[in-house]
Known about the structure:
The structure holds two protein chains of two kinds.
Chain A lengths: L8 E5 L4 E6 L7 E8 L6 E6 L4 E2 L4 E4 L5 E6 L8 E9 L11 E6 L1
Parallel strand pairs in A: 1-9
Antiparallel strand pairs in A: 2-7, 3-4, 3-8, 5-6, 6-7, 8-9
Chain B lengths: L4 E3 L2 E4 L5 E6 L6 E7 L6 E7 L2 E5 L6 E5 L5 E5 L8 E8 L10 E2 L3 E5 L1
Parallel strand pairs in B: 2-11
Antiparallel strand pairs in B: 1-3, 3-8, 4-5, 4-9, 5-6, 7-8, 9-10, 9-11
Amino acid sequence: DAKTTQPPSMDCAEGRAANLPCNHSTISGNEYVYWYRQIHSQGPQYIIHGLKNNETNEMASLIITEDRKSSTLILPHATLRDTAVYYCIVNPSNTGKLIFGQGTTLQVKP
Amino acid sequence: DAGVTQSPTHLIKTRGQHVTLRCSPISGHKSVSWYQQVLGQGPQFIFQYYEKEERGRGNFPDRFSARQFPNYSSELNVNALLLGDSALYLCASSLVGTYSYNEQFFGPGTRLTVL
């Protein structure tokens, strides 16, 4: 079973920031937080990951709370092409078994 | 550079038949993982292979098997197909280092329909 809880759906206006929350209250010390997204009918796409520090790359920012029990993925300027299912996954770094939950369906609206 | 490629794109089989799905990882990637995605659900982990050895197995029956070849490509085999095996089968590759197992690059998938 997935170790994360995400809202099933969210809406965001085009051009605004999309903030996607994830709860992972049982995360262990050696587990990272990973975010993937899946655009309809395509394979999932890696977005970002982090352990305890906030992370930023060209796609998004990841904010992890100090107690590591929750995190937020931020898409700073959402576009229509960001409409997708977003998955938050916690996993030790040394195993490749990603456990996907139901994810959050993000709908970006014009 | 080419991404992860999978073949075939679509496949239709009947119950009881056998199917082989193929995956070529990104050049230089030595780990391949397989996932099953039933409509409306997130992907479910089936297998992971690294350097031709099985490194992980999900909760799937023995009808599912896989292997990895010396060139790091992989095959997923499913015997005695059931209607419930109808799904999108995803292959993912990763450049395995200490912290790279989970930065996986997914292919477009093979859509299997069992009639």
